[in-house]
Amino acid sequence: MNSSLHESSEVPLKQFACFEAQHVSLIRSGIEVLKDISFSACAGELVVIIGPNGAGKSSLLKTMSGELKPSKGAVYIHEQEIDQLELSQRAQNLAVLSQHTGLNFPFSVSEVVEMGRMPFATGSSYDQDVCHKAMKAFDCYDYRDRIYTQLSGGEQQRAQLARVFAQAWPSSNYLPQYVFLDEPNSSLDLSHQKMLLEACRQRAENNAVLILVLHDLNLACQYADRILLLDKGRLRANGKPWEVCTESMLSEVYNVDVNVVQHPNQDCPAVYL
User: Which of 24, 32, 46, 138 has a CA 20 to 30 Å removed from the CA of 64?
Assistant: First the structure.
């Protein structure tokens, strides 16, 4: 992982990134897909959302980012309701990777990554330098001139991750940042999954809130500071991996018998069918 994600140094306490969801509910097509969800996350935390299909994970992430407006409750980033932020201000604070990007134009990888710097575009060499570092961090610099639509799924995903992290690059004025990623490890091989999670860890430690949706429970347990477990639109559990990923809880929510043991190399759970 490229160490340049650690460019900034000590962050003043008053500018620490802090996210909060207060009693968030969401109704879509007459169905309540999120039900009275409350939690918070602060700079330095890597939070992972897990849950079975249809639990509301993507809906929660879209509501957190302001893409969807909650039917009840509110979402705040550094004590400001997200709906009250101008779009330009939101883009400078919040970087999002959706589950489906739907980019079908013949842009080069460099052009895709440069989209991440549009909220800050200065025309200076700094933006280009950030994009180059982000591409190197996600191992797509060597194919930066290739057409995005001609890449494999994994190569496209690494380009999208470079775009998101270029947008949320550590700033010299310690701007609080929020990075929300929906299934960011999809299409990635094992080495690039590790690269991704280590990048998330580094970015969280540099005045950012990182919140990810993951289906891989073992990756969640290995890397998360805290896990949110959703079930049928409700927040069933919120805590450290050992607190959330118990045999009884996972078996009940996922409707399948699981075994939870000590990871052989880390102080975290390992989940097996």
Answer: 138
Cα–Cα dist 4/24, whole Å = 36
Buried b (16+ CB within 10 A) or exposed e, 99-132: eeeeeeeebebbbbbbbbbebbeeeeeebeebbb
pLDDT(188) > 50: yes
- The model's pLDDT over 257-273, given as tens digits with 9 standing for 90+, comes to 999 999 999 999 999 99
Smallest CA-to-CA distance from 41 within 78, 92, 87, 71 is with 78
pTM confidence score: 0.92
Neighbour count for residue 221 (Cβ, 10 Å): 24
Given a cut of 80, whether residue 233 has pLDDT beyond it is yes
For residue 5, give every residue at least 6 positions away whose Cβ sits within 8 Å of its Cβ, in sequence order, or none.
Answer: 137, 165, 170, 199, 202, 203, 206
Q: Domain residue spans in the chain?
A: 17-106+176-272
For residue 253 the two structure tokens come to 């929510």
**Domain 17-106+176-272 -> CATH class:** alpha beta
